[in-house]
Each structure stands twice: as structure tokens, then as C-alpha cells.
Write a structure and sequence with these properties.
CATH architecture: 3-Layer(aba) Sandwich
CATH superfamily: HUPs
Distance between the termini: 29 Å
Radius of gyration: 16 Å
Number of strands: 5
Bound molecules: adenosine-5'-triphosphate, magnesium ion
Largest sheet: 5 strands, parallel
Number of helices: 4
Oligomer: single chain
Mean pLDDT: 91
Strand content: 15-25%
Number of domains: 1
CATH topology: Rossmann fold
Strand order of the largest sheet: 3-2-1-4-5
CATH class: Alpha Beta
């Protein structure tokens, strides 16, 4: 069994954000948790743009540049909020399948915990858990905290 060493067990925390109120609450939980830990962890705030290319982009459009601008704008409010908290963080944005990228990032960078909302932006169905949360809980190699 993996050894959990007191409050220093969460040194690196990944927070998955999609612009929803649920994700904002998840981030606020992460900040509260971070502030309460003896050893201040580093938060990695990650947004994944689930790009689906159906056609060739119009001539003259630099897709990567466009995605970069989008990612930057999308994560701006998170930066503004986090700057007020004094918590150590970095913000990232990637493209791909959100759950896969979240799990891969957590894995590759040896995150100790993933924090995310139970639901997200498209909280329309009656299901308790969104598909991204569901898939991350299934596939992550570290603990996952979901915030209602
Ligand atoms: P669904 O997308 O399955 O219709 P939903 O939008 O209500 O349902 P999820 O997408 O699973 O639910 O969202 C749950 C949580 O997962 C969000 O609060 C957020 O923390 C995280 N999440 C969802 N999408 C992304 C994304 N594209 N990038 C990063 N994190 C995400
Ligand atoms: Mg969603």
C-alpha cells in the first residue's frame, strides 16, 4: 500500500477547469486545501480544449496561434483569481480529449491529487457525474476529489 506521509502528501495538485461554476468551486476548494497544508503545494490549473477538426481551416488561419489565444483568454479569470490567493500555481491549456489529457498530465508529472467538479459546463443531463469526471475517476492513477 502506498505510504501517505501526513500533510506533505499533496505536493502537486492538478485542478481541471472548464469555465463552469463547478470548476470554479473545485478551484476554491483546492486553494483552501493548499492554504491548510503544512507544506505549500503547487497547483497546476489545466484546461483542455476538446478540438474537433471537421474541415481544413480557412487559408491564412494559424490554428495553433488561434488555440493559444483561446486558451489564454479562457484561463485569464483563473489567473486573476489565483493572484489574489497567494497560492503557488501555474496555468496550462492543451488540446485533446479532456479526460485523457487530465489523466496523462497527472501521470507524467506525478501529481498527488486531481481536483475537479462533479459536473461541468454542459450540466444538462440528470446524471450525477459528468463524463469527464467519470472517465478521470476511472483512469487516474492518483486520488481524485470531486467538488459538488
Ligand atoms: P458532460 O461534459 O459529460 O456533458 P458536464 O459538462 O456536466 O457533462 P464534465 O464535463 O464531466 O461534466 O465536468 C466535470 C468537471 O470536469 C468540471 O467541473 C471540470 O473540473 C472538469 N472538466 C470538464 N471538462 C474539462 C476540460 N475540457 N478541461 C479541463 N477540465 C474539464
Ligand atoms: Mg463537460
Amino acid at each position: 500500500m502506498a505510504e501517505v506521509q501526513g500533510s506533505s502528501a499533496y505536493e502537486r495538485i492538478l485542478v481541471a477547469v472548464d469555465g463552469s461554476e463547478h470548476a470554479q468551486r473545485a478551484l476554491e476548494h483546492a486553494v483552501q486545501l493548499a492554504k491548510g497544508l503544512q507544506i505549500a503545494p503547487r497547483l497546476t490549473v489545466l484546461h483542455v480544449n476538446p478540438v474537433m477538426m471537421v474541415a481544413e481551416p480557412p487559408l491564412g488561419v494559424d490554428v495553433d496561434e488561434r488555440l493559444d489565444e483561446e486558451g489564454h483568454a479562457m484561463t485569464e479569470p483563473y489567473r486573476t483569481y489565483l493572484d489574489t490567493t497567494g497560492v503557488q500555481y501555474e496555468v496550462r491549456y492543451h488540446t485533446g480529449d479532456p479526460a485523457t489529457v487530465i489523466c496523462d498530465t497527472a501521470n507524467e508529472e506525478q501529481m498527488d491529487l486531481i481536483i475537479m467538479g462533479t459536473r461541468g459546463k454542459s450540466a444538462v443531463s440528470e446524471l450525477f457525474l459528468g463524463s469527464v469526471s467519470h472517465k478521470v475517476i476511472q483512469h487516474a492513477h492518483c486520488p481524485v476529489m470531486t467538488v459538488k
